[in-house]
Structures are given as C-alpha cells and as structure tokens.
Design a protein that fits this description.
Layout (H helix, E strand, L loop, with lengths): L1 E9 L4 E9 L2 E11 L6 E6 L4 E6 L6 H13 L8 E8 L10 E2 L2 H8 L9 H14 L5 E5 L9 H4 L5 H4 L10 H14 L1 H4 L3 E5 L5 E6 L2 E5 L20 H10 L4 H10 L2 H6 L5 H6 L3 H25 L4 E5 H6 L1 H9 L10 H5 L13 E4 L4 H18 L8
Parallel strand pairs: 1-6, 6-8, 9-12, 12-13
Antiparallel strand pairs: 1-2, 2-3, 3-4, 4-5, 7-8, 9-10, 10-11
Helix pairs in contact: 6-16
Family: Belongs to the acetokinase family.
EC number: 2.7.2.1
Main location: cytoplasm
Length: about 400
C-alpha cells in the first residue's frame, strides 16, 4: 500500500492527530498535531516529524467549533498529501462492546451500534463518535476505520471477564472489557521487537496517566486487566474514582439522596486525585503543592496502584517483568519509585540513577523483576490497523485500492 493515513485520537478535552506516509509495510511520521483545551481555550499546535513547528494558534469556541477543527486539520495536511493522497482515516474508539474484537471499516449501522455504548464510556465515546460523524459528512468518499480500545482484552481469562452476577445479565453482555487496548497493543509489539524471550514473560504493564489502568499479559496477549465494563474501575485516576464498593454507591443514593446522574458525575468528574486532594486532578500540580491533602492524594494513588497490581500478579501467579508507560508512567520517576518501593516482596529492586534518567531498564541487575519504561504510541497502532483494514477492503473491492 502507498499513500497517507490520518490517525485521530479524540478525547473529552483534546484531539490528537498524526499523518503517516505508508509505503508497503513501512510507516513514516509526517506530521503530529493536537488540539488542547477543547472545552475552554482551544489551541492547535502542529509539528513536522523533525520537530519544526508549522502551526500554533488559538481557536474561538463556537457552535461550529468541531467542524472548524476538522477543517483546520485538512488545511494543515493538504500540502503534505498533494503528492501522496490521503487514503484513509483511523479513529480511536473507546468501546466496541462484545461485538468487535478487531478494527472495522465504518458504516451507518456500525456507527449506530457504537452510539448504544455511550453509557459505558460517557467521557470518551461521545467525542470519538463526534469526530467520526463529522469526518464522514465532510469526506464521505474517504474510508474510515474504528480501532477499539477494548479489542486487546477480548480474550482475557474467562474468570477475569465475568462478574459474579445473575446469568440473565451476563447473557445480555454485562462483563469486564478493559481499555487502553491500543496502548497495550503497542507495548506488546515493542516487547516482541526487543526479545521473543521478553514477550513470553509474565508481565504487568502500568498505563499511568489522567486515565490509568494495568494489564497482565504473557506472549503478547492479555490475561487480565484492571478496568471492567467501563473505564471507571480499577486504579484511582485524575478525576475518576477507580474501583469502589458497589454498596457505597447504593448508600450515597439512599442516604444523600443522590440521583444516578449525580453519582455518575461524582465518580467520573469529581473523584480520584481531584476529589481526594480538593485541588487538582493533575498529578504535576499536586507534586508541587505543599498542601497536606495533595500528599494524601498522591499516597492513595500509589497505594491503590500497588493493590491493583497485586491482583494482576495473582492472576498470573507471579510477575517477571513490569513496564511503566503513558504520561505519568513515562515521565514521573517519583511515582515509579514510590510504586516500586512497595514491591520489594515481589523481588523488585530499583536502580535510582536509571530511574531518575528514565532509562529503558530501571531495575537493578539483581532484581528478580525486570522493570522498564516504554513510551507508548497509540497513533502508530491506529495507522497500522487502519491501513490493514482498508487494504483488505480494497482487495475485496469494498473501497478503492491504495495508489
């Protein structure tokens, strides 16, 4: 295949995109861009692969802001697609439900199905679908592919996937799915690239960011993960609570007279680091604060991360490799050390100098568990999955072939 592919990663308050040149099985980054502060003070920054900034502008919030954002993306990439036409767009989609284990070429029926999953991903699914609908309207001729964050976990251990609820509800699809699958796909592929021996190890990957989760994997396959039906469970996050006692929810509804909508708002938007600290959901802000509640929030984040990690270890009956990734995992030596210092019982021994330098391997040679830092790259996974799906569709005559 030859041409360019656009990878879109739409979040609740940001929109990241990358343009890749595709030549056969080789993918070269052309541009990277990001809209930040979409709901408050939107700003677009775009850089070429070499780091040269080609766009840095503020946008006005208005009724047609999303359309404006997409038009600006097309405007920015136009000179770079003149000789290598844009062949497809890949969208990160949070939830594929029980239906999709692989990326899929989008059509009206699939988009309608994905809308039914919004209650299981109220932070991200609406944003994912909004960009899909706009792109399909603006460029109906362009093949578009949905790449699912749930797909990586579709074959986790059946015991890990089930909830202990009546069979009638399980039959309706209420089960644990897991998320951050594009990130875990990248990490699994990266481990395989490093060493076939390494990918066979019992590994826990800690995707720590504003949204956080962990995945137990072996042989590049997911065995268990910390999130469940929704991306609300598992680790404590920036504004999300992570796992709480279901009885707490019932008690709050009854004793505090809170509606389901108010409970959802509290657990998704007002809990986690923000709720515990009363200051911010941004770990960087809390690290710089001298407020005692900031320290308590950080300590609880680490405590609960270690507790969730122990569940992953129990599922695999051991751990031989630990990988830190995503915003916090890649960039916070302090948090990595706080977590690893609590894992001595597993044989984890951190090399402080390597950790402070964010080296690829940050464990001591004598550590029984090898600890790595691997920057994730969801967008390259989006691009590769999109090119594969569109290539297969072209061979089947469903879409025009790549040039």
């Amino acid at each position: 295949m030859n041409g360019t592919v656009l990878a879109l990663n739409a979040g609740s308050s940001s929109l990241k995109f990358r343009l890749y040149e595709v030549e056969g099985d080789h993918f070269s980054l052309v541009l990277r861009g990001q809209f930040d502060g979409v709901n408050e003070n939107p700003r677009l920054v775009v850089k070429e692969a070499g780091g040269k900034e080609i766009c840095n502008m503020d946008l006005e919030i208005g009724e047609h802001m999303q359309e404006d954002m997409l038009e600006r993306i097309f405007g920015v990439i136009k000179p770079y697609t003149a000789n290598s036409p844009l062949q497809a767009v890949g969208h990160r989609v949070l939830h594929g439900g029980g239906r999709f284990a692989d990326p899929v070429l989008l059509d009206d029926e699939i988009v309608s199905y994905l809308e039914t999953l919004i209650p299981m991903g109220p932070l991200h699914q609406p944003a994912n679908l909004a960009s899909i609908k706009l792109f399909r309207r603006i460029r109906p001729d362009l093949p578009q592919v949905a790449c699912f964050d749930t797909a990586f976990h579709v074959n986790i251990d059946e015991r890990a996937a089930r909830y202990p609820i009546p069979l009638e509800y399980e039959a309706k699809g209420y089960r644990r799915f897991g998320f951050h699958g594009l990130s875990y796909t990248y990490i699994a592929d990266r481990l395989r690239d490093i060493s076939e021996y390494l990918v066979k190890k019992r590994t826990v990957v800690a995707h720590l960011g504003s949204g956080s989760s962990m995945c137990a994997m072996r042989n590049g396959k997911a065995i268990d993960t910390t999130m469940g039906l929704t991306p609300l469970g598992g680790l404590m996050m920036g504004t999300r609570s992570g796992t709480v006692d279901p009885g707490l929810v019932l008690t709050l509804m009854e004793a505090e007279n809170l509606s389901p909508a108010e409970i959802k708002n509290m657990l998704y938007y007002k809990s986690g680091l923000l709720g515990v600290s009363g200051i911010s959901g941004d770990l960087r802000v809390l690290m710089e604060s001298d407020n005692p509640n900031a320290k308590k929030a950080i300590d609880l984040f680490v405590f609960r991360a270690c507790r969730e990690l122990s569940i992953m270890v129990a599922t695999m009956e051991g751990m031989e490799s630990l990988v830190f990734s995503a915003g916090i995992g890649e960039n916070s030596p302090v948090i990595r050390k706080m977590i690893c210092d609590r894992l001595g019982w597993l044989g984890v021994q951190l090399d402080d100098d390597a950790n402070n330098a964010s080296a690829e391997i940050i464990s001591c040679p004598e550590s029984r568990v090898e600890v790595r830092v691997i920057p994730t790259d969801e967008e390259i996974v989006l691009a590769k999955q999109t090119a594969r799906v569109v290539g297969e569709a072209a061979k089947a005559g469903k879409v025009p072939a790549f040039a």
